[in-house]
Amino acid sequence: MVEATGGRDLRLEHVTKRFGTFAAVDDLSLTIPSGSFFALLGPSGCGKTTTLRMVAGLEEPTAGTIHIGTDDVTYAKPYKRPVNTVFQSYALFPHLDIFENVAFGLRRRGAKQIKQEVEKALELVELGGLAKRKPAQLSGGQQQRVALARAIVNRPAVLLLDEPLGALDLKLRRQMQIELKRIQTEVGLTFVHVTHDQEEAMTMADTIAVMNSGHIEQLGNPTQLYESPNTAYVANFLGQSNLIRATVVGTSGDDLLLDVHGSRLAAPVSRRASGDKELLIGVRPEKIHLGAPDEVVPDNHNVLRDGVVTDASFTGVSTQYLVRLPWDQEVMVFVQNLGVGGVLVPGTKVSLSWNPAHTFALDGSEDALAGVQLEEPVSVG
Amino acid sequence: MAATTESLPARAKRPVSQRAGRWLSNNLIRIYAVFGFTYLFIPVGYTFVYSFNNSGKSNLNWRGFTTDKWANPCGAPDVCNALSNSLKIGLIATAVATVLGTMIAFALARHRFRGRTVTNLTIFLPMATPEVVLGASLLAFFLNVGVPLGFQTIVIAHIMFCISFVVVTVKARLASLDPRLEQAAMDLYADEWQTFRRITFPLVLPGIVAGALLAFSLSFDDFIITNFNSGDVNTFPKFVWVSSLRGIPAQANVIGSAMFFIALFAVLLGQAVTRRRRA
Ligand SMILES: Nc1ncnc2c1ncn2[C@@H]1O[C@H](COP(=O)(O)OP(=O)(O)OP(=O)(O)O)[C@@H](O)[C@H]1O
Ligand SMILES: [Mg+2]
Questions:
Q1: To bridge A258 with a disulfide, which of A224, A246, A320, A358 should be the other Cys (CB 3.0-4.6 Å)?
Q2: CA A288, CA A293: separation in Å to the nearest integer?
């Protein structure tokens, strides 16, 4: 029996997968420590499923190697790997009932106490009463949970989850997120979780890798990725960012001194992702303070004046403002609803200020709109 | 006027022609179905009724009711010999065609090999070629090669055209099979053989069974190709054809009716089983 064992890191080295000339996964290197909850986050078509399929053995890499612990499994058969997959399309066996679907892996390995194990797994996903049904008689969300139970019941060293919660409603989704996280910590399996949903990735994962067209843009824990994105893509894909063009004019202590259309701003040297003189500096909308045009700001704070509110939308928790700066760039500002002051109407003149420590600096040659989702009005001047 | 219309059931006020029209439009499908089935079943009904005819040599005129022919279906000369030949040929041809056809279907659906397109086309040919042409060319072939006509040549001929139908049916079933199911099985520790046995085969089985049933009925029923290649071996369709010149004995009706009821029973049984399994 293949049991989860400690110290079996999943290691991908320079893995490339080409379909014809198109590289779905391009020179990807990645180490996923044993027992961690790892999220692969990225837009549709960026190669997440392909990466998982190579780990599962359902696709052969064009180049590179895959190790689990010290075993090279690059070319091992799928059934020889201590890996199970929750397929994006569920792939439940239509001719077997739910019980047999979940028992399938256990039976192939000649496990004992199949009945108890299966029942336990079905309880876990709250499908205890449906064991005798066929997959076609379940809703999409129920099928997804069967797929989950069918994989988890085997306690693999690495569990691959390809958007396992995509078909669930919000309530069940949150519940399953907590459940998944609990299972993961309880049994100490390595989870590789693929998702579109950045919030899901942030709340569940120890480590997130943001993928973009076949490669990893950045890898780190949720806080690192959010607070110190290395690329415009990550800055925009994970949450929202205001990216403003700036020129380095000098340094002062631990700060970079920057010129932004005549205003002097500062950013920590430690958060500079590029040695370039031309930078894109970023600040998250919730870090910005919206003040009166001539408001006195604390010493050393970054301040941009002569802004005009162009749009305000009240969301309850906060109000989301768009502020146009003199060089026609619109900046997004979230103001928490503390119950003081009303909502500013469009046309109001304002100043923007924030703590320099909350500024990150990216390479100036980057596309400031890379990775922007939906039609969020983030523009650059 | 308006008041009376409201107080009476609307139906009663309609003119007769309109009511008839409505009744017709409501029941058109049913009427059509009755006509259709009647048309289909008149020959079967006729065959069944005349299996009770107290006839002599010819079964053309009604001579009174008897169950003698049912009690002794082999009474007419050669009828049971022909029937048993047909059954044997049908079973052998079906078995061989189903096995070979299924393997060809898997090869065509799952593997890319040289000559795949050609094979696809060749498999299709026996279905597209007129039977007369097939029968005649097979005969010419057997004569040229020097194979004596008889039981074996009939079997060979039947296997040939049955294979096509099995391949087409099984291939269709395979095409609709989601490859991710097999991948999921492999991911769940099933090796190639177990994946085939537990997943692929059960899912393709309905296609194989359908192909086999089709093959058997095609073989049992075939007259033209058989007639060319049978030598002096008699099959049931050949027996009916030959005796129709002199008058078909009522035993042929008995066997025909019996086949019909066996087939009907098999279909009903099959449906009952699927329903039981679904529930
Ligand atoms: N078998 C294949 N042949 C050709 N191209 C493929 C194949 N499988 C995937 N691709 C391509 O590789 C790219 C990555 O596909 P993949 O399925 O890994 O995306 P994904 O990140 O999982 O997307 P999604 O979030 O939509 O599931 C896509 O552009 C896809 O079209
Ligand atoms: Mg995918």
A1: A246
A2: 14
